[in-house]
């Protein structure tokens, strides 16, 4: 018969050290098993009572119990609490830990000059995931892990919880009213673009594409058989007057043109939607970081403008608001393309991990995303101001673009300057940025440095600006 204690006191002695508290609690319990004080079938105290006994937060005990269960030391059943698993004593005597123990890093080969990790990584397109509150993040994933194991990939008709959460998020933050059933979850923006190319029959046809523009989007279209026609953007973004009757689709980033950073004015947005409605062309709106704007009012998404529902395919992504590691985006196609988009995804087999989608749904529905975006926007605004101010002090007369929104700013350089050489010199000095010339499909029409500030501490702004000023010269 399994031994049982209704009011068990373990009298744990937590090991010292810098390991996380959950690991030290788990280690102490494993030590009790090794010494024979706990054996298979024994019940552990409730997380609440053990937390009180140790004078620690209950969440630390919950995490420790989760760690022990994951390592096979414990089992739990509803109504029976947590018990020591069969074979746990053998594992403990063999020295099996409940977690991977940190060991000194093995010697590594020194990276070559082009591979050295920069002291300041200002590559554009990356948010700061360290701003996410760890307890919110763990709680969301704990809920997802507790759900029944999916029997198959969800496909374009699945992820109901996430679609409901995203529909509310889009209504509040982007002014887009959509039924959850209209949203389709895809594994990244490139997947959305490939799918739209197939669904709208764009292979072999022209897509008007911002110049300079997002190189990965250009590659996604071209690898799917479409032709991208460069359309030069100005200080207000893409001009509808530059479009042609032969353009079957238009790809644009109206919230924060990538990479120059302009915000498409409302009159141009309206004319763009009117042009698409008149010609029957498809507008593809990549709203990659539309949640972040500073000292300016929100502008309506193309999808939210009158007539936009019938001609705009809206794409949003978790890459900039949370982390690119999720590989998750959402697509809101015009009603006429919903069926073809779903069919294209069924045919390609591209899908999003159901556990990831459920975790993000919980993260949004719990209010954690709203709190995170507010905190991130304040932090990014401060980092942007610090970098912009430092650059203006260090480089009098410097021309900056794209400072009103997004996660990056562009330092414009004079024509004829080799921005790739400047970028290489900065890299040698520990600052990683992108040269503006690489965002052009044809001959570079402008030179500059695209600097992402999302992961740059404010205290480092002056040091970064000093290096930039020294390299680009007066």
Strand content: 5-15%
Q: What string gives the helices and strands in order?
A: HHHEEHEHHEHEHEEHEEHEHHHEEHEEEH
Determine the mean pLDDT: 89
Helix content: 25-40%
Cα gyration radius (Å): 27 Å
How many individual helices? 15
Number of strand elements? 15
Which outline best applies? Answer: globular
Sheet with most strands: strand arrangement: 4-10-9-8-7-5-6
**Poorly predicted runs of 5 or more residues:** 1-6, 102-111
| Termini separation | 83 Å
Q: Class by helix and strand content?
A: alpha/beta
Largest sheet: 7 strands, mixed
Characterize the structure shown.
The chain has 15 helices and 15 strands. By secondary structure, it is an alpha/beta fold. Helix 9 links the parallel strand 7 and strand 8. The longest helix is centred in the C-terminal third of the chain and has 27 residues, at 368-394. It is globular. The protein starts with 20 loop residues before the first helix and ends with a helix.
């Amino acid at each position: 018969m399994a031994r049982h204690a209704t009011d068990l006191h373990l009298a744990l002695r937590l090991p010292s050290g810098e390991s996380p508290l959950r690991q030290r609690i788990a280690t102490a319990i494993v030590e009790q098993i090794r010494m024979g004080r706990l054996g298979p079938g024994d019940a552990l105290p409730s997380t609440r009572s053990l937390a009180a006994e140790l004078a620690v937060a209950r969440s630390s005990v919950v995490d420790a119990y989760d760690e022990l269960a994951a390592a096979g030391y414990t089992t739990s059943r509803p109504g029976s609490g947590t018990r020591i698993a069969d074979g746990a004593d053998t594992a403990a005597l063999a020295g099996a830990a409940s977690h991977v123990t940190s060991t000194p890093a093995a010697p590594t080969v020194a990276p070559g000059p082009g591979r050295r990790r920069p002291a300041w990584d200002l590559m554009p397109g990356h948010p700061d995931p360290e701003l996410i509150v760890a307890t919110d993040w763990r709680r969301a994933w704990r809920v997802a892990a507790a759900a029944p194991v999916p029997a198959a990939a969800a496909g374009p008709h699945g992820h109901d919880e996430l679609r409901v959460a995203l529909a509310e998020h889009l209504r509040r933050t982007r002014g887009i009213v959509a039924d959850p059933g209209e949203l389709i979850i895809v594994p990244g923006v490139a997947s959305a673009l490939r799918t739209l190319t197939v669904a709208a029959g764009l292979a072999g046809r022209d897509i008007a594409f911002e110049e300079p523009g997002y190189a990965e989007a250009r590659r996604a279209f071209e690898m799917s058989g479409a032709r991208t026609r460069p359309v030069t953007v100005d200080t207000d973004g893409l001009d509808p007057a530059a479009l042609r009757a032969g353009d079957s689709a238009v790809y644009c980033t109206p919230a924060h043109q990538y990479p120059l950073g302009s915000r498409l004015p409302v009159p141009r947005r309206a004319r763009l939607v009117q042009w698409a409605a008149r010609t029957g062309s498809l507008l593809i709106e990549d709203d990659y970081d539309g949640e972040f704007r500073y000292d300016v009012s929100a502008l309506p998404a193309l999808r939210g403008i009158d007539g936009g529902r019938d001609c705009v395919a809206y794409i949003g992504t978790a890459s900039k608001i949370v982390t690119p590691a999720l590989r998750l985006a959402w697509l809101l196609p015009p009603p006429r393309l919903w069926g073809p988009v779903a069919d294209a995804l069924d045919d390609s087999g591209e899908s999003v991990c159901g556990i990831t989608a459920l975790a993000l749904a919980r993260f949004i529905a719990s209010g954690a995303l709203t709190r995170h975006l507010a905190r991130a926007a304040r932090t990014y605004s401060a980092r942007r101001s610090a970098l912009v101010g430092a650059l203006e002090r260090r480089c009098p007369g410097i021309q900056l673009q794209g400072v009103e929104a997004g996660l990056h700013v562009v330092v414009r350089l004079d024509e004829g300057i080799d921005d790739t050489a400047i970028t290489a010199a900065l890299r040698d000095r520990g600052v990683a940025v992108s040269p503006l010339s690489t965002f052009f499909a044809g001959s570079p029409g402008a030179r500059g440095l695209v600097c992402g500030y999302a992961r740059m501490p404010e205290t480092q702004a002056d040091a970064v600006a000093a290096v930039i000023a020294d390299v680009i010269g007066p």
